[in-house]
Amino acid sequence: MTLSKRARRFFSRARFCFLNCGVLLVCLLPSGCARHEPPADITIINAAEPESLDPAIITGQPELRAVQGLFEGLTRLDPKTARPIPGLAERWEISPDGLVYTFHLRTNLVWSTGKPITADDLVYSWIRALNPATASDYAGQLFYLKNAGDFNAGKIRDPALVGVRAMDKCTVRAELNHPTAFFLDLCAFPTLYVVPRQTIEKYGDRWLMVRPLPSSGPYELAAWRLNDKIRLKKNHRYWDATNTQSEIIDLLPVGSPITSLNLYENGQADIVWDKDLVPVELLDVLLKRPDFHTFNYLGTYFIRLNVTHKPFDDPRVRRALALAIDKNRIVKKITKAGEQPASHLVPDGTANYTSPAGLDYNQELARKLLAEAGYPGGKGFPRFNYIFNAAAGGAAKMHENVAIELQQMWRDTLGIEMELRQMEWKVYLGAQSHLDYDSSRSSWIGDYNDPQTFLGMFTSDDGNNRTGWKNKNYDALIREANEQPDLSARAKIFQSAETLLVHDEAPIIPLFFYVGINYFDTNKIQGIYPNILDSHPLQSIRKIKPQK
Amino acid sequence: MYFLKRLAFAVPLLLVISALAFVLVRLAPGGPFDRDRAPASPEIENNLKTKYHLDEPVWKQYGRYLGDLAHGDFGVSLKYRNHNVNDIIAQGLPVSMSLGVLAFGFAMAGGLTVGFITAARRGRWADYTGSFLAMLVVCVPGFVLAPLLILIFAVKLQWLPVALWDSPWHMILPVIALGLYFAGKVARLTREGMLNAMQSEFVTAARAKGLAENKLLFKHAFRIAVLPVVSYSGPMLADLLTGSFIVENIFQIPGIGVFLVNSSLNRDYTVVVGLALLYAVLLVGLNLVVDFAYTLLDPRVKYE
Known about the structure:
The complex is a heterodimer.
Chain A (H helix, E strand, L loop, with lengths): L2 H31 L8 E4 L15 H10 L4 E3 L6 E3 L2 E6 L5 E6 L13 H12 L17 H5 L11 E5 L2 E5 L7 H4 L10 H7 L15 E7 L3 E6 L13 E5 L4 H9 L5 E2 L10 H4 L5 E14 L9 H9 L3 H9 L4 E2 L21 H10 L11 E6 L5 H20 L3 E6 L1 H9 L5 E7 L6 H4 L16 H12 L3 H19 L2 E12 L5 E2 L15 E2 L5
Parallel strand pairs in A: 1-10, 1-11, 14-15, 14-16
Antiparallel strand pairs in A: 2-3, 4-5, 5-7, 6-7, 8-9, 9-10, 12-16, 12-17, 13-17, 18-19
Chain B lengths: L1 H26 L14 H10 L6 H13 L14 H36 L4 H15 L2 H15 L11 H32 L1 H8 L4 H29 L3 H6 L6 H9 L3 H29 L7
Helix pairs in contact in B: 1-12, 4-5, 4-7, 4-9, 4-12, 5-7, 6-7, 7-9, 9-12, 11-12
């Protein structure tokens, strides 16, 4: 029999088999993939897939919201006010100079696997976050400890020299470089959470894949599937387990605003808690509904000016640009979620502080300053660029619209021409950090509730400065403020610094303060409170059972 | 023998592909650890680079990569640092593959049927409708089709879920959204092939010998007509199996297609190279299968 004959016979059979297999496959395959999991008590749409669930490694909001369910620090954040309250530590003493904190751990602390949590675990966790081998992005959150920066940089090898020590099984002593007004806030930040030493030492970077994973927080990790879901189940050994409201919580990583809204409207999700998950096109309609909640948020949208490029080296030019912007128009016409226009950098409502006034909308003064700088009516002013990033979801359009609005305002008021440049995210970041731009869209979300997280970044050597602006007075003021233990004196010094930044020198132009938006039905979901950090501890969220 | 040779040739090809992907993704501006907030000290960034060997020269990095690859290790994702590329593929590929196989089945069943009918009823009402529909679905891109399907069947009619990947019901809309384009392509290819085959000499001869029209269409013309479909189905299957960014994104499906795009935006070097290799392996493998299928279908084709 020749090959072709055999093939022909094969083909006629194959045709029959193929059809049958096809039918079978279509019937079987979906049922094989279907999962048999009990439904969650609460399903939350949590924006992007978390990059990691390792407290020492994470940096973003979606990660933070998941990790705060799994691990805990010495303090935790109050669900209503987002101020630090006792967590794993039940109480603490602070030395009068504000340099030494003595924490007393609760005596009934155990991991979800049953082993006790001790002071040694805490010291291990902090040293681990600082260890260069861990490569933690946010190791800086621990640099307030004595010698911590040098240990992280590899200049000191002995971890015993770092300012954290276990005095006994339940006592931890932390020694700081300066009195740090927000140190208790930092203790509630993931980088400072307590993580399971034995598991990490045994499994290395893959420790989060271990089941059961020892957790120190109110929830255990039941499942983590990339781009699918994170399932948390109640940790019954958590010290405050009696107050954990829900047994099973699912966190869905959904990045698309439309998909989020669809899932929510069809009842497949109970809570959507990210501003970027609200479809911008529908903002007007949605914000009128009672299940859409907006609140002030610890974030500022601003413009960076590159002071190393002419003519932005002249403070008069920078101030003229700031004075020519009608910020009210931007929040009313473009952002539309109830944002407040900003004339200063630190958002209103930040703890320990009230900002001084910055530059308000004043076209006359703007023209005058530009003329003084040598460009009357914009004559001779070089064409300059404004860079902004191509963001995901609705933010992309917003950045572009803000840019167009600025272009128009500056042209109309000052007679100067600006060119818009939209860039891919990483390219944009590169242009910003290499000072390869004239003016740039910028924003900053506070890491902790204190003016330092905003004002600190414009000191001369800070990696986030990215304007080329270096001012010795400013650096000195920030240093002085951070050495000042008295809070009101500290606030005054910060105010002088901020005046220098947003009024006198203006290397940056604040545009507006962000608002947060969550959506959930208050008749079904309770335990989520608006606060400036958009922090909503999972253990206090509960679903109200429908009444029959 | 021929196929063994082809397999042997695939190895250097994959090496070249991996090297190109490895170098090209590193040439793109920015790196995996660039964020909107700079770390508190430059040492932190150095620690990151040291940990993932990005401080070494590229040739050394590539050597290290090949060494790990020899042990079946694609390396650790630089964005999802707790997962390695093997995890990502192991979690995402089965999902994308189920979706892809279903969409492939849908495209073949729908496309061949429509193609066959339109050719057999050439110049009549059925032909015009079928050809128009086939043309239409080829022209409507996925990012239009998927939201339309959701709007009609999930939001308005509420027959099917809007998104996620849980039960067979969840699969229907994504399968249609993914498969419809290919169904249109297959229909057009089949129609074209049928019409060509019907004009060929052996069909005329068969007809002259008095063969029944039905038998002629099915037994003779169709077999030749599907050849272009078969050769198209290789790359099509590879395309479908590796997932679709748009469909997976819109329906929130935990497949591999989302990673294919996002990994390069994130400069997640290891994932980019790993997925490029995966795609290459699938493409080479499926093309081989297609060539083999040719020998079965067409007696004129022989490989020495």
